[in-house]
Design goal:
Shape: globular
CATH topology of the largest domain: Rossmann fold
CATH class of the largest domain: Alpha Beta
Number of strands: 30
CATH superfamily of the largest domain: ANL, N-terminal domain
Number of helices: 20
Bound molecules: 5'-O-(acetylsulfamoyl)adenosine
CATH architecture of the largest domain: 3-Layer(aba) Sandwich
Largest sheet: 8 strands, mixed
Strand content: 15-25%
Strand order of the largest sheet: 12-11-8-6-7-14-15-23
Distance between the termini: 61 Å
């Protein structure tokens, strides 16, 4: 029997060593004993980080939805798979059983097929957090179509870029969405985007807010009547383990988003196994991850990981502040949530509010608390531990990335002793390395460097859609034979890891990865702007906020500076989305540059963070005089 469920620290170390000594043997055992395969693999692993190429379970056949749904039907057909909690607390929650989920997914899959979608086609899903979102993700997987979920907070041009990059033929959306006391015109955003997407043939529209929208003839169809008429029988497409399951876009340090590609077999095995252990999920637990399915956290730990374990997973449509700041805790109490997984930015926002919002709810069902998305600061950790966990629910600080597919460094609750701000130990099968700037591995403990991974794990992204070279350059060229994460980390005296943050041009704002380049591109399109640079600076709630340094074409620009600031943010909202708006905009005469013309962001970061007393050596700059000027007028 494999150690599918790790129960104590000694067992963790023992299994960890076993998986390092013989990764193929270890993952083969996990895959064999806990999943449904139509055909077993010919080879467990083939890899070469120099190409780079990684293949797990080659030759195996499966369908992930048979693992997430069909195989549960014999013993838990009537168990709730998904609890849908609507934005409005007065609207009834929906409990979707595994039996019902099977039927809904099959119907949706048949609707996709009737609309011309075949194995390998890309389908863009731009939906709010309503059941149709999870169902359409699974429906794509059912028929072997590649889903590309775009977070429904992205703007029309961000959506268009993503649709075109992967050449999606069909878009799933809704008339609109609820967000607290606001509604958002999603269909309008899609319509604008599609002016730039000539290859989209069909738009399927779910009805959510009953708004008046226009349906384009020949292109747009209401989903409900199609689902009603569709057959509930849809045999699962048999996929190769290495066939693509989905594309999910993430920001990079250059303009274009990267479409990370995940494949069927390895992704399933790793997300399911990490889910089981990192949340210590037990048979009748109710698990809730507050992320949006538009991010990797939602893919892996709302949909695939939980369902592959036959779990009950909560899907929440709303926001933590509506109708008041007690909403999360009201939902925990209402559905008796056992595992609760959220982001540090949400914790910080809630910690600012009156404690009564937490205290008036019965949170005694909670057994495990989790965080993800960015480093958690010590105050937020203690607040979460004391006020939500009442000091008896371990906190799992889970470090991972869109690219890793699943959790890589994290405690296991009731197994790994936790320390605030430490992601602690690598998950089974994960081999981290800390590297210095010269490309040498830092051995031993009490070291700090750049975080790399030395050996493939089953859910590593296999490529960037349409650009394998960029995949190699971004992740496999900085350090020989290693996957480079883009993060810095330290390892303490006992070998615990602490993630210190990004070391590249990605800034994490409220847990969302934002590349500096696309935001700068957007600013630079403003007719009054000559050049710009953005950096992150510490923010109480968001973790980081954005600070923009902007050079105007005409130094004596006559317009009110505040009007310009508004226009710039308006433009960013249109190009990317409101999450990328700048908190501060300083108009500057120039930007500090190296002789090769590279902007010295390090200096700009220090000034933005009000930490400009020691800027290090600036004598090598092309224009050191501009630094004083920027410092003097810093916001
Ligand atoms: C899951 C997810 C990835 C980046 C990653 C880090 C940061 C995520 C933590 C964290 C410190 C954590 N995917 N990050 N989790 N930093 N501690 N527990 O967030 O692709 O959107 O972002 O997020 O910088 O590289 S992501």
């Amino acid at each position: 029997m494999s150690n599918y469920h790790i129960k104590h620290l000694e067992e963790y170390f023992q299994v960890y060593r076993k998986a390092i000594r013989n990764p193929e043997g270890f993952w083969e055992e996990i895959a064999e004993e806990h999943f449904l395969w139509r055909k077993k693999w010919d080879k467990v692993l083939e890899w070469d980080f120099t190409k780079p190429e990684v293949k797990w379970f080659q030759g195996a056949k499966l369908n992930i939805t048979e693992n997430c749904i069909d195989r549960h039907l014999t013993i838990r057909r009537d168990k709730t798979a998904i609890i849908f909690e609507p934005n409005d607390p007065n609207e009834k929650a929906q409990h979707i059983t595994y039996g019902e989920l099977h039927e809904k997914v099959c119907k949706m899959a048949n609707v996709l097929k009737e609309n011309g979608i075949k194995k390998g086609d890309r389908v863009c899903i731009y939906l709010p957090m309503i059941p149709e979102l999870a169902i359409s993700v699974l429906a794509c997987a059912r028929i072997g179509a590649i889903h590309s979920v775009v977070f429904a907070g992205f703007s029309s041009s961000a959506l268009a870029t993503r649709i075109n990059d992967s050449d999606c033929k069909l878009v799933l959306t809704s008339d609109g969405s609820y967000r607290g006391n606001k509604t958002i015109d999603l269909k309008g955003i899609v319509d604008t985007a599609l002016d730039y997407c000539p290859d989209v043939e069909t738009v399927l529209v779910a009805k959510r807010i009953n708004s008046d929208i226009t349906m384009k003839k020949g292109r747009d169809k209401w989903l409900a009547p199609l689902l009603k008429d569709a057959s509930n029988d849809c045999p699962a497409e048999i996929m190769d383990a290495e066939d693509m399951l989905f594309i999910l876009y993430t920001s990079g340090s250059t303009g274009k988003p990267k479409g990370m590609v995940h494949t069927c077999g390895g992704y399933m095995v790793f997300t399911a196994y990490t889910f089981k252990n990192i949340f210590q999920y037990k048979k009748d637990d109710v698990y809730w991850c507050t992320a949006d399915i538009g991010w990797i956290t939602g893919h892996s730990y709302i949909v695939y990981g939980p369902l592959a374990n036959g779990a009950t997973t909560v899907m929440f449509e709303g926001v933590p502040s509506y109708p008041d700041y007690g909403r999360f805790w009201e939902i925990v109490e209402k559905h008796k949530v056992n595992q609760f997984y959220t982001a540090p930015t949400a914790i910080r926002a809630l910690a600012k509010e009156n404690l009564e919002f937490v205290e008036k709810h019965d949170l005694s069902s909670l057994k495990v608390l989790g965080t993800v998305g960015e480093p958690i600061n010590e105050d937020a950790w203690h607040w979460y531990n004391y006020n939500v966990g009442k000091n008896r629910s371990p906190i799992v600080d889970t470090w991972w990335q869109t690219e890793t597919g699943g959790i890589m460094i994290s405690p296991m609750p009731y197994v790994t002793p936790t320390i605030p701000t430490f992601a602690t130990l690598p998950f089974i099968g994960v081999q981290p390395a800390l590297m210095d700037e010269n490309g040498n591995e830092l051995e031993g403990n009490q070291v700090e460097g750049r975080l790399c991974i030395k050996f493939p794990w089953p859910s590593i992204a296999r490529t960037i859609w349409g650009n394998h070279e960029r995949y190699r350059d971004t992740y496999f060229s900085a350090y020989k034979n290693m996957y480079f994460t883009g993060d810095g980390a330290s390892r303490d005296a006992v070998g615990y890891y602490r993630i210190t943050g990004r070391v590249d041009d990605v800034i994490i704002v409220s847990g969302h990865n934002l590349g500096t380049a696309p935001i700068e591109d957007s600013i630079n399109e403003h007719p009054a702007v000559a050049e710009s640079a953005i950096v992150g600076f510490p923010h109480d709630i968001k973790g980081n906020a954005l600070y923009g340094y902007v050079i105007l074409k005409e130094a004596g620009e006559v317009r009110e500076k505040d009007d310009l600031r508004k226009e710039i943010n308006q433009q960013i909202t249109e190009h990317i989305g409101p999450i990328a708006k700048l908190d501060k905009i300083q108009f500057v005469p120039g930007l500090p540059k190296t002789r090769s013309g590279k902007i010295m962001r390090r200096i700009l970061r220090k000034i933005a963070g009000k930490d400009a007393s020691d800027l290090g050596d600036i004598s090598t700059l092309l224009n050191p005089e501009v630094v004083e000027e920027i410092k003097k007028n810093a916001l």
